[in-house]
Write a structure and sequence with these properties.
mainly alpha, single chain, 3% strand, elongated, three-stranded antiparallel beta sheet, 19 helices, disordered C terminus
Length: 449
């Protein structure tokens, strides 16, 4: 019997708190239980991080759309910036010109003018040929009227004054957008049944006054009714309004919740770096899905607008202008996700990652040696950079992330610019560290050899 494995009896006079020494069998069982507990704990963490990641990826497209809705609807300046280009879009301008010209010409009774002329000529005893010629003037006269009206309307719509009126009207009627999204029927932009209509009454008034001033007194008879242009027509408008209300409510918190879920997924995973790669890749895939959904929605929207209500090219311009900031934000997040996944992978143990790191180290080391050969040494500063390489790298990355956070709606180009600057700074820091030369201890050891 192993005395070390037998505890002392109370009467033996030994230390009753003597530490128990495990046998080989007990040690093996203990190790087995530890491995089992570690595996079970790892599986629980993997399952939890997978659930968190799934929730984050499902919410990611919705969070981007919610943030866009919140930003566009709540911020008047942002909304005006969104719709301002429509005033100078040629397709939208032509649609407005054609609509207003048709309404003006429809209120000019050219036939009554030619009939009156032919009756006057007939009563005056004019030859039948002359009377017939007067009756045939209806077509040319109508075209002449349309040409003059079209020219006048075009001057108004294509002028800088129209763009100013457009932006001012949109700024004043920003509340109308909220009304449309919430289903209210007030303001310049409102929902009517299954359609979304824009009230152009102020523009009609301006064109009518210009035509009256130009001598077309009949233009004063342009009715005050039918002063709207149908922008959207869809049977799903009610559902879209419900979704917009939900997105508007969640616009502030949904992006925060999504980021927190993604961060928790990375934190709870046993392998943080690998989970970061997976999370960033998943976010990139979801952004691609959102871009595809926007393209499909564009096609559905164009198919839902009848050509008689709005030409397809004008409808396409309206859709593209309205969602361009959402599309830009999606592309920006896609670029950020791809960069994050790539950086996380390059810090890993994979053979391509090691090859890239080795090549970068060799390049910066060679550049640092070149500086030393020409007499440029960074001394203690370079050695400090070498000793605190992880901190300096993290600081540069954090500075780049902070720059993107403080950037007002960064685009994909802005992300590429910040990334380029960060990479350049890291290269310069690595070269400066390599230019410090060997430490004193290293020089002594080299001399001893």
């Amino acid at each position: 019997m192993n005395p070390a494995a037998t505890p002392d009896s109370p009467d033996s006079g030994g230390d009753s708190h003597q530490k128990h020494v495990m046998t080989a069998e007990e040690r093996a069982e203990y190790d087995r239980l530890r491995r089992h507990a570690a595996v079970r704990h790892r599986r629980v963490r993997q399952a939890g991080s997978s659930v968190l990641l799934l929730l984050a990826l499902l919410l990611a497209p919705l969070a981007v759309a919610a943030a866009w809705v919140q930003d566009t609807v709540s911020d008047t300046d942002r909304y005006v910036e969104t719709v301002a280009p429509l005033a100078s879009d040629p397709h939208v301008q032509q649609a407005v010109i054609n609509r207003l010209t048709d309404r003006v010409v429809a209120n000019v009774d050219v036939k009554a003018v030619t009939d009156s002329l032919s009756r006057t000529l007939k009563d005056a005893g004019a030859p039948p040929r002359v009377v017939a010629g007067a009756e045939s003037l209806e077509g040319p006269l109508r075209e002449a009227v349309r040409t003059v009206v079209d020219r006048t309307v075009t001057r108004v719509i294509t002028s800088d004054a129209f763009q100013q009126v457009w932006e001012g009207a949109n700024r004043r009627s920003h509340a109308a957008v909220v009304n449309m999204l919430t289903g209210d029927r007030e303001g310049a932009l409102r929902a009517e049944g299954d359609t979304v209509q824009l009230n152009v009454g102020a523009i009609v008034d301006q064109v009518r006054q210009r035509l009256v001033d130009a001598g077309f007194e009949k233009a004063a008879a342009i009715p005050d009714t039918d002063r709207t242009i149908t922008l959207f027509e869809t049977q799903q408008l009610g559902k879209a309004q419900d979704m917009m209300r939900l997105l508007d409510i969640l616009g502030t918190w949904l992006p925060v919740v999504t980021v927190v879920l993604a961060a928790l997924a990375v934190w709870t995973a046993p392998a943080h770096r690998a989970m970061l790669v997976v999370t960033a890749t998943g976010v990139a895939v979801m952004m691609v899905v959102l871009l595809v959904a926007l393209a499909v929605a564009r096609r559905v929207y164009l198919d839902s607008v009848p050509p008689t209500a709005l030409p397809s090219d004008a409808a396409a311009a309206i859709y593209d202008t309205f969602v361009r900031f959402l599309r830009d934000s999606t592309r920006t997040l896609l670029v950020v996700a791809v960069i994050t996944a790539l950086v996380a992978y390059l810090y890993g143990p994979g053979r391509p990652a090691r090859a890239v790191r080795t090549a970068a180290d060799r390049g910066t080391t060679a550049a640092g040696r070149g500086l030393r050969r020409v007499g440029v040494r960074t001394g203690s500063t370079g050695r400090w950079l070498t000793d605190h390489r992880a901190w300096t790298t993290g600081g540069v990355i954090a500075a780049g992330a902070l720059a993107l956070l403080l950037w007002n709606h960064p685009s994909a180009g802005a992300v590429a610019l910040v990334l380029g600057i960060a990479v350049a700074v890291l290269i310069v820091v690595a070269v400066l560290a390599a230019a410090a030369g060997p430490t004193a201890g290293h020089e002594d050891r080299a001399a001893a050899v």
